[in-house]
Automatic annotation (TrEMBL):
It comes from the Eukaryota. Residues 16-334 form the Protein kinase domain. This is Protein kinase domain-containing protein. It comes from Rhizophagus clarus. GO terms for molecular function: ATP binding; protein kinase activity.
């Protein structure tokens, strides 16, 4: 919290007052801020342009398609800087996010840039990362895990079925939530002195069903996402393209990567540790490639066989046999006919 008094200022962000740092991504700094004109709280993802230079290269066909999209949809100001467009990945993230509007997807409110930075003005998710919530609670009850995974899956269904977008980076760090209850800390900090900012209460947010509603969960970080190809028409979903068959073939099963990730997230929420883990990266890679995971005793003993069945169908190595998003929603554990109220975790 000591950083509160030395928040950075960025050119071109005069409309916003930066309040505190919320997250450090691999390529970005994310701040909580307030829109001075509307008093709306937002999140601002700041990305330095210079570090984008070595970002992933697109395949030629895909790059061409994306250029068509850029020409059509991107902000007028950005067209003046064609070289910056070619080099950056953040613009793809922005271009995809602009097309998305769903309760389970963090929305992009505005996009700004200065000479050195891009700024994504995002819907603020006060609770932060689901990752931290798993760490805090150790593991979730089955009802709480269902409550979370269903919301994530609704976001994925929207991306896959309506927008032809694969996220490709579903993980607890990129799943954000809105709290429904705030439990104040037991030792509140003393009142602020005359020249001090008030300290934030160190209490915690609780996710689950509380006083008036259910905490919302949303998918963030479209930095690795991309548009995929429709299997029947062999055209990119949601856009027009001139793509070679080998690219279409490669992308055929790309939606299934999100389903695998969904299985990993569900597994992790239920027991508190990930399905695949090894200190050594080559060993870990090997385990993932073979789909080597177990429902480790004693942690998994009290957890329902139905949830294990669902996880097994998501953590299936063969992408053709892996559950699709529609099969996911048909599974008995998800349908959970007799809906029970979700206890606070
Ligand atoms: P990166 O591509 O660098 O991983 P992310 O978009 O994932 O960037 O943002 C990094 C982190 O910032 C997230 O993991 C999260 O902790 C925080 N964050 C991002 N967007 C928001 C938001 N809309 N509300 C609250 N926190 C956010
Ligand atoms: Mg991220």
């Amino acid at each position: 919290r000591e950083q509160r008094n030395k928040m950075p200022t960025y050119p071109g962000l005069d409309r916003y007052q930066i309040l505190e740092k919320m997250g450090d991504g691999a390529f970005s700094n994310v701040y909580k801020a307030i829109d001075k004109m509307t008093q709306q709280k937002v999140a601002i993802k700041v990305v330095r342009k210079r570090e984008l230079n070595h970002s992933q290269k697109f395949s030629t066909a895909l790059a061409r398609t994306l250029n068509v999209i850029k020409e059509k949809h991107l902000h007028r100001d950005m067209k003046k800087k064609p070289r910056a467009i070619e080099r950056s990945n953040i613009l793809k993230e922005v271009q995809i996010m602009r097309q998305l509007k769903h309760p389970s997807i963090v929305s992009l409110l505005s996009f700004l840039e200065s000479q050195d930075y891009y700024y994504l003005i995002l819907e603020l998710m006060e609770g932060g990362e689901l990752f931290h919530q798993i760490v805090k609670l150790t593991y979730f009850s089955e009802d709480l895990a269902r409550h979370v995974i269903v919301q994530v899956a609704e976001g994925i269904r929207y991306l896959h079925e309506e927008k032809g977008v694969v996220h490709r980076d579903i993980k607890p760090e990129n799943l954000l939530f809105e709290p429904i209850a705030f439990v104040p800390s037991k030792n509140p900090s003393p009142p602020p002195g005359p020249n001090e900012e008030p300290k934030e209460d160190e209490g915690e947010f609780i996710l689950g069903v509380g006083g008036g509603g259910i905490g919302k969960v949303k998918i963030a970080d479209f930095g690795l996402s991309k548009i995929v190809w429709d299997e029947q028409t062999m055209t990119p979903c949601g856009t027009v393209g001139y793509t070679a068959p080998e690219i279409v073939k490669d992308e055929r099963y790309s939606k299934s990567v999100d389903m695998w990730a969904l299985g990993c997230v569900l597994y992790t929420m239920l027991c508190g540790f990930p399905p695949f883990y090894d200190e050594s990266i080559p060993e870990l890679t090997e385990k993932v490639a073979k789909g080597q995971y177990t429902f480790l005793s004693p942690w998994w003993d009290p957890i329902s066989t139905s949830s294990k069945d669902l996880i097994s169908n998501l953590l299936t190595v063969n992408p053709e046999k892996r559950f699709t998003i529609n099969q996911f929603f048909e599974h008995p554990w998800i349908k959970n006919e007799h809906k029970q109220p979700i206890p606070n975790a």
